[in-house]
Amino acid sequence: MLRTQFEDDLNKLHNQFYSMGTQVSAQLNKAVRAFVSHDRDLAEEVIVGDFEINEQEKKLEVQSLEMIALQQPVSGDLRTIVTVLKASSDLERMGDHVASIAQATIHLKGEERIHEAEEDISLLGEKVKSIVDASLNAYIQGDDVRAREIADQQVIVKEMNHEIENKILEAMRENAETITTGKEYLLTLVYLERIVGYAINLCEWIVYLKSGTIVEL
């Protein structure tokens, strides 16, 4: 009976974690759309949504700690709860960077845009979202092989990032009116790369769950 209750609680924890992750992914999609379409209202919606993500992280933290304190899990079960505890913190940080992209959209209102970079940022945003989604799915499936494959994709993001950065810097050199804009664009690239970094952290937690060893992917 106690074991059944524990497993139910663990399933709820997983489901809440996945729900939080899908919300972060949806927020990322909105933030990038807002950025490239100059949609201030959508950007403000993302910023408001970040508070909800923060609250979800707090709830997961409380539930995880309660399960550790009250049910005193051992071995694999303890590892699972600790993973949710740590990985939900990574999701919350992803959400913070997503909100920062939305803030950049608001800062850019009325500024000279660099249109040739915006299409590329949109594509980069799609790539980043696909990595986040794949990481969440690998987590739910407990697929450590897939987690390692996903981690390899960070190289593609770095390459895309570098190409877009060069376009932005070139535009800033050619037109001084884009310097303020360029800074926000460059920061947005940093935010997207950091989101990928936290998605890779999630992949590392998946490997840890399977092997009990913390690895760097």
Count of domains:
1
CATH level-four homologous superfamily name: Phosphate transport system protein phou homolog 2, domain 2
* Strand element count: 0
What is the CATH topology classification name?
A: Methane Monooxygenase Hydroxylase, Chain G, domain 1
List the total number of helices: 7
Q: What is the architecture at the second tier of CATH?
A: Up-down Bundle
String of helices and strands:
HHHHHHH
Structural class: mainly alpha
**What integer is the average pLDDT?**
93
Family: Belongs to the PhoU family.
Subcellular location: Cytoplasm
GO biological process, one term: intracellular phosphate ion homeostasis
Keywords: Cytoplasm, Phosphate transport, Transport
List descriptors:
217 residues, mainly alpha, Methane Monooxygenase Hydroxylase, Chain G, domain 1, 7 helices, 0% strand, elongated, PhoU_dom, PhoU, transport, PhoU-like_sf, Phosphate-specific transport system accessory protein PhoU
Task: Show the helix and strand layout.
Layout: H1 2-37, H2 40-71, H3 75-107, H4 115-141, H5 144-152, H6 154-174, H7 179-211
Helix pairs in contact: 1-2, 1-3, 1-4, 2-3, 3-7, 4-5, 4-6, 4-7, 5-7, 6-7
Domain PhoU: 19-104, 121-206
Main location: cytoplasm
GO cellular component, one term: cytoplasm
Can you tell me about this structure?
Homodimer. This is Phosphate-specific transport system accessory protein PhoU. It comes from Lactococcus fujiensis JCM 16395. It holds the Pfam family PhoU. Plays a role in the regulation of phosphate uptake. With 217 residues, the chain is mostly helical. It has a single domain (1-211), classed as Phosphate transport system protein phou homolog 2, domain 2 (Methane Monooxygenase Hydroxylase, Chain G, domain 1, Up-down Bundle), CATH 1.20.58.220. 88% of the residues lie in helices and 0% in strands. The protein has seven helices and no strands. It has helices spanning 2-37, 40-71, 75-107, 115-141, 144-152, 154-174, 179-211. Helix 1 packs parallel to helix 3 (75-107). The longest helix has 36 residues, at 2-37. The protein is elongated, with a radius of gyration of 19 Å. It starts with a helix and ends in a 6-residue tail after the last helix. The model has no long low-confidence stretch (mean pLDDT 93).
